[in-house]
Structure prediction request, 364 residues.
Amino acid sequence: MLEMIEDIDPGALLVAMRHTIDRLELQFAQVAAEFHQTDQWDRDGFNTSGDWMRINCNMTSRNVWNALVVGEQVRHLPLSLEAIQSGDIGFAHLAIMANTADKLDGFDEAKLLPLAKEHSAGKFYRECLHYRHSADAKGYGEEQERLVEERSLRMNTAEDGCLLITGVLDPVGGAAVRSALEPLARPSGGHDDRTREQRLADALVELASGGKPAELHVTATVETLKGLAGAPAGEMEFAMPLSSATVQRLSCDCSVMRVILDGKSLVIDVGRSKRLVDGALRKVLAVRDKHCQWPGCDRPASWCDGHHLVHWIDGGDTNLENCVLLCKRHHRMVHEGRWKLIKVDSQIVTIAPMVTFGLPRGPD
Ligand SMILES: [Zn+2]
Ligand SMILES: [Zn+2]
Prediction:
């Protein structure tokens, strides 16, 4: 077979093969609808004919459903049947048409077929939703409400402290989440080598932090804050013990920080004004910096942390001179990634860490 088709244009070959497969899919659907009327699946111990096909024909639920609904509806769709035979539409179009017919009384095939011929299957699906809404707004609304009822979000903490998230959002809720996350998940700065999944995860955390000093309850010893050898890890609500570098980053600009003074078992709240970049200072900083000061990054001020060039635990002041705005990702690269930031003629210059293996990368 392969030798025979070697000379054929592969594009034309794909189209011809798909046409053959589509017609076979149609035949499969017609036989599936007949099979559904028998009691063979019941005798074989299956709950539904669909389950029988899913297991014995190695199909997904969606494909089984499409076969059954096309097989059931196709006798009401003579024009579409002609169109698939002639290759004007594909089986994907026919399945959408049949699903729409299945949900509507008084379905008019002639209205939708020209749209099926004109559009890709994905676009045609959207056109069919509009058609369904125009023909039966109440039924369409009820279906949307059912989707809302299926919403769920589960959060479980894994043994290593990671948060596992699974869930389903209805179309409107999902769109709201996407439109909030997508702009934040765009690549930022030079050499952003995060995957899309990593950027989306960062965007979610950034969104949850809300662009203001994080309301995180962090507790650590002075030794931990200074990153001294032998110091215990830091503590934070809902989290596993934190490394020194993470404690240093969070304490740079977080609103609730408690420092344990070693030996005295004394817990003090370090004064907000001594360390927190907020109020008037944040406003002035936002006017001066406008966005993250990492070279090439334009994450706006409202999404940035205030970073102390010299940490307050090391005597750095919380003032305009010693603070710069950094987005969450670049703030992390400075503390956990050990990049150095220095000011040269009021310009921020980055210096890569000596050892980069396993650490966040950034602009050269
Ligand atoms: Zn910082
Ligand atoms: Zn940045």
